[in-house]
Amino acid sequence: MPRKLVTGNVVAGHMLAMAGEANRIARGACAGAYPSTPQTEVVEYLRAFPFTKGTVVPVESEHSAMAVCIGASLAGARAFTASSANGLSYMNENVFNAGYYRLPIVLMAVNRTLGPPWNIWVDQGDSLALRDAAMLQFYTEGHQDLADTTLLAFRVSEDPRILMPSLVAYDGFIISHTTAGVDFPEQEQVDRYLPPLRLPHQLHHEHPLTIGGLAWPHESIAQRVEIQRAMERVPQVLEEARREFAGIFGRMPEGAITTHATEDADTILIATNTIAGTVRDAVTARRARGEKVGVVKLRLFRPFPRAEILAAVAGAKRVGVIERDHSPGSGGIFWGEVATSLRERSDILLQNYLVGLGGGDVTQPLIEEIMDDLAGRTRAEEPIWKGVAA
Fold it and tell me: Are the beta carbons of 310 and 108 closer than 8 angstroms?
């Protein structure tokens, strides 16, 4: 495997291109391309890639970028695109359509704060706003994680037991524009991992049919039940995809969650994306001082890994959810999901901390401050904002 020093956006663009190229003996690849900071380099990379059988379609909006992917996917192409912030919001209608059409499109979400006021820095609120779409959501910590997860997303989405789009999120600028060493696979390996796409409801001239016509209530209910059942199969399919990945590429990618020092921890922090790395450093430092603390990194948000979270924090007395998003009138979005997962564990004190919104720095001293607050708590309260200017 060649190791290269590249930015996160180059990682995303290259892995999408390799996945698309792997479908060249079938119906090829197609990307809808509309630039928006900080994901512009992704679609620029795709536009320059010499696909054997594939095309990148420049369009006038993010809504149209996903529309191109929908049409291409229905025709049997491996389809993908990228967006950020308000672009993801503008794409919203067609993201829902892609899920309800059961199309295995992969969407790279380079997390950025929704405006106005306009802000180009990181915040997970843009991708989490799509949490009710029929779409898998993966959150990645670093460059290698991003590369591996992109291939996993295609493999799981295209599995005939799933057939739903996937969103792969990574932090704008913190990952998208920084450089790290990445072990890129050979095209032959990707070809083996991603067999030609065979969409069961692919359109054919010989057998015309209507997609997305009028449905009666009982038909819509049945469709939603089918989607829920497919979501329930994701954990098994993901584990199979991870094992197959290890067999081809020689390393095991991370699963729905990863844990660090949680086995005997009485205090556990839950985090995602790059914040998880900062929390891990703080936990390691406290462990060296004899404190029983641990961290759970959440990678899979949809379907939400409730059983895995519950098992990971089973021995804890206090759990803190640290996140870079905000649902007005509620609090942290990840916290709400964790709270539901722990609904039968009233003995665990669960506290939410909102940090780094709008791209604010999330430093180890800030995490230490949160850990001190959580350790001293006897009761939970409303979500706590940290790092807010006075």
Answer: no
Q: Which residues of the chain have pLDDT under 50?
A: none
Whole-structure pTM value: 0.97
How far apart, in Å, are the Cα atoms of 344 and each of 94, 196, 314? Answer: 37, 44, 11
**What sign results for the dihedral spanned by CA atoms 256, 259, 263, 269?**
negative
Q: Quickly list DSSP for 289-302.
A: TT--EEEEEE-EEE
Amino acid in the structure at residue 188: E
Based on DSSP, count helices (H) and strands (E) in the chain, helices before strands: 13, 15
What is residue 209's predicted lDDT score, i.e. its pLDDT?
86
Is the four-CA dihedral 378, 379, 382, 383 of positive or negative sign?
positive
**Are the CB atoms for 227 and 334 separated by under 8 Å?**
no
Cis amide prior to 116 (ω within 30 degrees): yes
What is the per-residue pLDDT for 50?
Answer: 97
Length of the chain: 390
What is the structure's pLDDT at 15?
98
Q: Are residues 254 and 151 in contact, defined by beta-carbon separation less than 8 angstroms?
A: no
Give the other-Cβ count within 10 Å of 25's Cβ: 11
What φ, ψ does residue 153 adopt, rounded to 5°? -60, -45
